[in-house]
Every structure is written in C-alpha cells, then in structure tokens.
Specification:
mainly beta, Tachylectin-2, Chain A, Jelly Rolls, five-stranded mixed sheet, 1 helix, globular, binds beta-D-fructofuranose
C-alpha cells in the first residue's frame, strides 16, 4: 500500500514537473518564432512607434491590432527593455476610440514619443508625450488624418488623450507619421511628417508641442514609385571626422520596383526650418536591399551619448505581410542598429551595424560548421570571393542562398516555402561598392529572419524565409571563409 502511495505521489510530482516544463519550453517556441527579435505574443504588428529612452528604459511602441492577426483596429502596443534585446510586454498603450457623436472611429497610426523635460506642453516636467496620426474612418474607409497628442505621467504605463485634439490638421485624407525631436540650437521642437501621395516631407516647429508652424518642405526627389511614409530626421557624426551631417530617411519604394515597399535616405543639412540634401543627384539612395525592412525610425532622447542613433525597423513587406505563415503573431522588429555616416572617395553613405550588445547573446563559438545542426538563433561571418555561395539547407531540400557574382551580393529565397503569396519568392541583390574581389557579410539567422550586414555596415539586407524543418545546416561552394560562428541565446524566457 505504502509503496503504491509513494509511486503514485512520485508520478504525480513528475507530471507536475513535466507540465511546468512544457509550459516553460512552449513560450515563444512556435514554428518560425524568432528567438532574438522582438515579436508580440500574439496578433498583428507593423511599424515601430514612439521609440524613446527614459530613466533606464527603452520604450518600444508599435502599430498593433489587439483583436487579430492581420492589419486592423490600429493601436499602440508597448514593451520596454533595458538593453534593447530582452523585452517586457506591457498593456496596449493607446487604443482605437470612437467618436460618440459621429460614430466615426479613430485609429492610432504611427508617430513619435518624446520626454518633455522642461514642461513645455504644460502636462508636467518629464512627462512622456506621444504625437501620433489620428486616422478617422468609418468601417475602415479613411476619412481624414490629423496629428493628435497623448501624455503619460507614469513612464508610459497609462495615457490620457489631450482634450483639444487634433493639434495639427490640414484637412487632408493622407497626412501622417509625425516624428518630433528637440532642436537644441533654436530651443524648439521640430516635427517631420509626410503628405504621402505628394511625396513631400513637411517640417513644423513648436515651442509647446501643441501649436505648430510650417517651416519648410522637401520634395521632388528620390524614389516616388510608392507613397512616402514614416520620415525621420537626425544628426549623425561622420566617422573619423569631427563633423556631423543630417540624414532624412523615409519609407516608400523599393530598389526592385514598385511592387514592394522599401526605404531611402538623403544626406544633407537641416537649419531648424528645412532640410537640404547635399547631392545634386535626384536619384534615390536606398537604406536596405532586402525585402523585409520598413518604417524604421531612430530612438529619441538617447542623451547619454549625444550623437548615438539607434534605429529599428519592421521586418515585413506590405506586399505579402498579411499572409506570412506565422501564428498566433505576425511580424517582427529588426535587431536595433547603430547608425553613423561614412565618407569615402566613392561618396557618402549611411552605415548600419547591429547594436554592440548583441554580442552578449553569444553562448558558444562553433569552430567548424561541417557537421553542425543549427536549431536556434546563430550568427556567422563569411568572406565570399567571386562566384561563391554560402547557404542554409534543410533535409527537405530547402535552401536560402547567399552568393557573390560580378560584384553583386544576392540572397535567394526561391527554394524556401513561398506558396502563401505569389510575390514572396525572390532574389534580392546589392551591387557592392567598388566591386571588390571579395565581400564580407555578417549574417544573423533567427528561425525565419536573416539580417545581413555587408562590409561592416555599408549596406544591410533583411529577409524573411520559411523552412518546413527547424534543423539547418550550412553549406558553402567555392572559396568561402566562414568565421565568427556563434550560437545566440534566445531572449524570450518565461
Ligand atoms: C506604414 C504605415 C504608416 C501608417 C501605419 C498604419 O507602414 O502605413 O504610414 O501610419 O502604417 O498602420
């Protein structure tokens, strides 16, 4: 009898342990679930919003549908982190709301967050203020887009909508995505936002975050194959020089043509009123050559290191974004990137590198990739000479191929799972600057995301890919040097 009891107790204990273990191990373990990239626990996400640093916390707000796994009911989701890699989910910060009189709904579209250190708006010193596009609609038919304000006196945990919203209205159906920052030389706030269908960035100035005056605009240049969205304007140091430049980046067309969305940027000067690009050329300079990097903006209030700029983008593309085969979430944010400007005899460009903190996730160095089976996130560096490839393969004959041919670095995802959308299958290429005999790529692989940094950051290519198997091997052909292979520790533990 006693023996039976002991046995029963032991098996009950074991079952308890097992179910606890199962609970622990199933969190963020679904097929395709990124292990080191930010994803919401469930539902649809698009643009990063209101990236701001306050009192030791990096805030990430994001376009979020609280009710489903496709775009709709746009609200601001919220998470915080102390290192930009490990995130704590917080309740939805700003929700879609209804106008009781008209019956119209207002979705909370993309926007910005700032810390009002000196109480210029009158809601209190150090209030967190969000300025976002209030998109009014009836049954998803857009009526108008204006800019509105909300504020939080408890570090973003709870929010109040300003009672005299909107704060900026030019009576247009499309007018959106404000980015606001403090412009020290003129002691004022600056807002950059777009009139999407006119391919125009407008700049406004304000002393109190509520009354805004138009000060300038930027248009008639670059890629106008898709509407302009999510502009950002920031000052960056030029590497190895004691000078800085202003960068205007925005989302719109893609180097592969109008079927896809992508990002471009301009380098020049900002005088507090308007932006002027340096180059006489009107052709676009793209920020990314992969398909899955969009709506990226930089952090506000990183004043612990004045010139530091960290950017985060949405890892998806509007062309197929609503159909990617992930559940119960859809879309990820990129690994945060540190930006700088580099001047060479070949021109001036934006350099992007994953934040240095990523190295802290390295758990094990892999000396030889020959027999290694990768099941979680990892990174590697490869030096590809002419006509060589390195690829990720599965036992199901799937392959994601990185190749270097005639100065072009390409990522080929045609041999991955593509049938969920006819436009997903693709080969994306970037012509490496100066056509060197070899190209160095640092590749971060995370279940269904590949982020590639070319020649220490002269270009980045971000691609989603979907394999039926979660066991990956690496394969190289030709004269390829693979080094710096590390397993990366997942950030989603419960
Ligand atoms: C960009 C965008 C923004 C808009 C938001 C709506 O991806 O279209 O222009 O504010 O998404 O979710």
């Amino acid at each position: 009898m006693n023996k039976i009891l002991v046995l029963l107790c032991a098996s009950a204990l074991l079952a308890g342990c097992q179910s606890k273990n199962q609970e622990v191990s199933s969190y963020y373990q679904e097929l395709y679930r990124p292990q080191i990239h930010f994803t919401p626990e469930k539902n649809w996400m698009n643009d990063p919003n209101g990236l701001v640093y306050l009192d030791g916390e990096y805030h990430l707000f994001y376009q979020y549908n609280p009710y489903g796994n496709t775009w709709g009911h746009m609200s601001w989701g919220h998470a915080v982190s102390t290192d930009l890699l490990h995130w704590q989910h917080l309740p939805v910060a700003l929700r879609e709301y209804q106008d009781k009189q008209t019956g119209d709904s207002t979705m909370i579209f993309s926007g910005t967050a700032i810390v009002d250190k000196n109480n210029s708006a009158g809601f209190g010193a150090n209030t967190l203020i969000s300025i976002f596009t209030s998109n009014t609609h009836k049954n998803n038919q857009g009526i108008t887009q204006h800019q509105s304000l909300a504020y939080s006196n408890d570090k973003g945990r709870t929010w109040k909508y300003y009672d005299k919203n909107p704060i900026l209205d030019i009576k247009r159906k499309d007018f959106r995505d404000p980015k606001v920052f403090w412009y020290e030389p003129q002691q004022k706030w600056v807002m950059a936002l777009v009139i999407p269908d006119l391919f125009t960035v407008q700049f406004y100035g304000s002393k109190n975050l509520i009354d805004w005056q138009l000060t300038g605009s930027f248009k008639d240049v670059g890629d106008t194959t898709r509407v302009w969205e999510c502009p950002d304007l920031y000052e960056l140091p030029i590497e190895n020089e004691n000078k800085s430049k202003w960068v205007l980046s925005l989302s719109g067309g893609h180097p592969q043509g109008s079927k896809f969305v992508g990002m471009q940027y301009f380098i020049g000067e900002f005088d507090g009123n308007t932006f002027q690009k340096d180059s006489a050329s009107h052709s676009p300079q793209y920020l990314e050559y992969g398909k899955d990097f969009y709506a990226a903006i930089v952090y506000n209030n990183l004043d612990y290191a004045k010139n530091k700029k960290i950017m985060m983008g949405w890892v998806n593309n509007w062309t197929y974004g609503n159909q990617i085969p992930t559940s119960p979430w859809r879309s990820a944010m990129s690994i945060p990137r540190e930006l700088s400007v580099v001047k060479t005899y070949n021109g001036i460009f934006l350099k992007q590198q994953p934040i240095a903190g990523l190295e802290k996730l390295r758990t094990k160095k892999i000396e030889s990739t020959d027999n290694e089976i990768f099941t979680s996130a990892f990174e590697f560096t490869a030096e590809l000479t002419e006509e060589t490839t390195v690829s990720l393969v599965t036992d199901e004959n799937e392959e994601l191929i990185f190749s270097y041919v005639e100065g072009e670095l390409s990522i080929d995802r045609t041999k991955t799972k593509t049938e969920f959308n006819p436009d997903f299958s693709s080969i994306d290429s970037y012509s490496v600057k100066q056509y060197p005999p070899s190209v160095k790529i640092r590749v971060i692989i995370d279940q269904s995301i590949a982020e590639v940094f070319v020649n220490d950051g002269e270009m980045a290519l971000t691609e989603q890919f979907f394999f039926t198997s979660t066991k990956l091997k690496m394969k190289a052909s030709g004269d390829v040097k693979i080094s710096e292979v590390y397993l990366l520790d997942g950030v989603w533990k419960k």
